[in-house]
Amino acid sequence: MTLDALRALPKAELHLHIEGSLEPELAFSLAARNGLELPFADVDELRERYEFADLQSFLDLYYACMTVLRTEADFRDLALNYLERAHRDGIRHVEMFFDPQVHAANGVPVDVVMDGLLSALEAGLTRFGITGGLILCFVRDLPVASAAATLESVAHRTGDLLGVGLDSAEVGYPPSLFEAVFARAGELGLHRVAHAGEEGPAEYIVESCERLNVERIDHGIRAVESQAVMDMLVRDRIPLTVCPLSNVRLRAVEHLGAHPLRQLFDAGVIVTINSDDPAYFGGYVVDNYSALAGVDYTLRELATMARNSIAASFASEARKTELQDMLDRWEEVYLG
Ligand SMILES: Nc1ncnc2[nH]cnc12
Ligand SMILES: [Zn+2]
């Protein structure tokens, strides 16, 4: 019953690395299609590697698997796979992260990546009614000049992007490094988000808000270590895109029952639930909601987080109203 309710719950996914939805089966079929070898014998051996000690141990595998993505069709197939799944899980709007600098290092131009992903999003809209768009992420452990050049390379097609983000290895790469790049993204009319406070300190959350002018924080769970940061998030109504199963799998949090989400939610921080890299972390969005239901979050609380996901999205106001109305109807059915 709860699972049906959670599937039916209208929701947005705001923290999804599309490359993190690459399932092992698709990775091997794309490798074969492109005449490439993966450094794993088969799907089972790859799955056995899904044991992570921390963010970096995951990123090493994630970047290795990304090498199979080469053509526009690969990116379209990848995103279509995700969108089919998202449709079954009741996702009505999705904002997809992608890492163009990593693809460029594999010889794939940013336009190929974007064209493939946009083609899937168009199909997702016509087939499933899912709205959404792309958020180009800068890899924070690559040089800032590379981020700046990547941004300039898409400056002529910012209409094809919702915004920019900041991801990859966090500790030692403070957000302030990217101040000028984010300022330029703002001039180009792009929305801004950044991963902060996943493994890095709560101070990175403040820096992202004050120096990068972000509109949302991705993860942000270490905010609970500072009352001042919690107060800022509540006061300035900065939403967090929390990824509970990811945090457990990357050992940022010991177990779900000890996840800072409860403290954040009870303090009045605008929290949303997301999957991050669903192929790697044992679950898509509904699996995250469902796992929370299993550690005493009520259906009403989960519906509030879904409502937050719609409000915190970069969807048009008309689309937000439409989705909030759908959520009102869901509440009548499931909450009475
Ligand atoms: N959880 C995560 N944190 C930082 N960078 C990422 N890239 C993909 N997943 C990520
Ligand atoms: Zn992420």
Automatic annotation (TrEMBL):
Catalytic residues (positions): E198 (proton donor)
Family: Belongs to the metallo-dependent hydrolases superfamily. Adenosine and AMP deaminases family. Adenine deaminase type 2 subfamily.
Pfam families in alphabetical order: A_deaminase
Cofactor(s) this protein requires: Zn(2+)
Record-marked site positions (Important for catalytic activity): H219
EC number assigned by the record: 3.5.4.2
Gene3D superfamilies, sorted: Metal-dependent hydrolases
Annotated protein name in UniProt: Adenine deaminase
Catalytic activity: adenine + H2O + H(+) = hypoxanthine + NH4(+)
Record keywords: Hydrolase, Metal-binding, Nucleotide metabolism, Zinc
Tagged with keyword Methyltransferase: no
GO molecular function, one term: hydrolase activity
Domain Adenosine deaminase: 10-330
Membrane-spanning segments: none
Role this protein plays: Catalyzes the hydrolytic deamination of adenine to hypoxanthine. Plays an important role in the purine salvage pathway and in nitrogen catabolism.
Stretches of the chain forming a coiled coil according to its record: none
